[in-house]
Write a sequence for this structure.
């Protein structure tokens, strides 16, 4: 199970025990707080009161193993994710490609996520990013509500898709998204 908190207050002894990975996004087109500031805040809290936050049974090393840094772009500026992260403009295809390359070669993050959050963004960004990544996994999320869209994104180079709204709003449509060719 994965958790992607948008606040360090969402991480607790219970959540660490229940998850396999804790995704920590570094949002390239968000405000400073969501690229660096929240990370500093989270690790400052962990280092200053580790036992108080996560209990004596956890070790810093075991918690560190669950943390997975994710290079992240939010392309739907009207989404809740964008307003939370301070995103005011989508990135161009060249900027998305640059963010993906920085994710892989500069930051050495294992994942890069192109998020359209509630709307289908097509395959152009996935095509652009897939050409520069060799070690980093490419995730796409946004508006996947059919097997056709899922297949299009996966065929364009995404390693995995994230299905959110469809899962909650239309279970039959969600089941269709799992019928992919790959």
């Amino acid at each position: 199970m994965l958790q992607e908190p948008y606040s360090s207050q969402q991480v607790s002894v219970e959540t660490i025990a229940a998850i396999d990975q804790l995704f920590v996004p570094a949002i390239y087109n968000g405000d400073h707080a969501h690229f660096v500031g929240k990370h500093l805040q989270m690790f400052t809290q962990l280092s200053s009161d580790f036992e108080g936050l996560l209990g004596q049974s956890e070790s810093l090393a075991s918690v560190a193993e669950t943390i997975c840094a994710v290079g992240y772009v939010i392309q739907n500026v009207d989404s809740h994710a964008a307003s939370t992260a301070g995103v005011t403009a989508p990135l161009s295809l060249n900027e998305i490609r640059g963010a993906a390359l920085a994710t892989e070669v500069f930051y050495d993050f294992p994942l890069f996520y192109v998020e359209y959050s509630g709307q289908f963004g097509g395959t152009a960004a996935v095509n652009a990013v897939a050409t520069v990544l060799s070690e980093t996994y490419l995730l796409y999320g946004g508006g996947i509500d059919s097997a056709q869209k899922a297949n299009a994104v996966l065929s364009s180079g995404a390693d995995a898709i994230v299905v959110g709204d469809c899962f909650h709003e239309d279970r039959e449509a969600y089941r269709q998204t799992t019928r992919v060719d790959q």
Q: What stands out?
A: The chain is about 45% helix and 15% strand. The chain has one domain: 2-178.
